[in-house]
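Z., the sequence and structure:
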Amino acid sequence: MNRFILAKSAGLLLLVMLAAAALFVAINRTRRHEPLTCVAGDAEARAEAIIPATLVNRYFDARRIKFGIGDAAIDGWTSLGDAMVTGGRAWLRTTYNASPNYYSLVTNRYFQTSSLAYVPVGVRPGAALEIREGEPVYRLWQRLSQKHPGGVMVEGYLQMQTLHTIAIARPAFNGLPIATHTPFYYTEPMESANDTWVYLVGIAAQLSDTHWWRDSDALKRLVPRAQMSDADGVAEVLWLRAAPSNFDKPPPVDTVSAVGQLVGSSTIAHGWLHLYPVHRVTECVDAYVR
């Protein structure tokens, strides 16, 4: 009788162990298939205007990135500015004040960065969002952050009723924190337009909730809290010369007139965004130029 009980107990224990192993495999398989959100560099170092030592001589290939947002430099760190990456190119306004192209749009396949959050090539969007009525940008960020408190990266085309953008005008690599030295870095006036099209890359999350941000290691790696003020999102936009001819692809170079950081008081008339919810954040090396 005792032998029977022992055998039965051992069988039950074996079944429990097998079930646990199967669950572990299933969870890890699911995690492997969750889309990655990649980071390069250090968002907090960017906020402190410090270039991580590991990136001083590191170059990135924009063709290995689906889209991203952060900062970038082209032809040297003296051009470092707010930037987006899309269509196999980095886009920014050069902050090199000795250049004849100072504060103008520059774009290139290869670039440097101190901090970039990006979606790798091959990742499909988790959902799409059509904006049918006029909506202030800050309300769009609120709506997205409520649904995706842990973060969602977005990209797509928007027709703007009113568009306001700003851009950093001095390179942030001198150790002067951006948040406490805003007048030093943002010396150029805000730019505005009505009834114009843009291509947008951004991140929405509950960043106005300091406690949520502080407890989320993923959000800290994606965007510095100091950059966000009271907003729940940040985006860079490419100003387009006309309505896009293909809504499924990033804009060609000759259709873009400028780049800038989207101001929350801008108003959207209509548009489409692809949503990429943040599941796993990891430092990726696939975009390195070796």
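Residues 18-33 have pLDDT under 50 and may be disordered. The longest helix spans residues 2-33.

Let me know what you think.
H.
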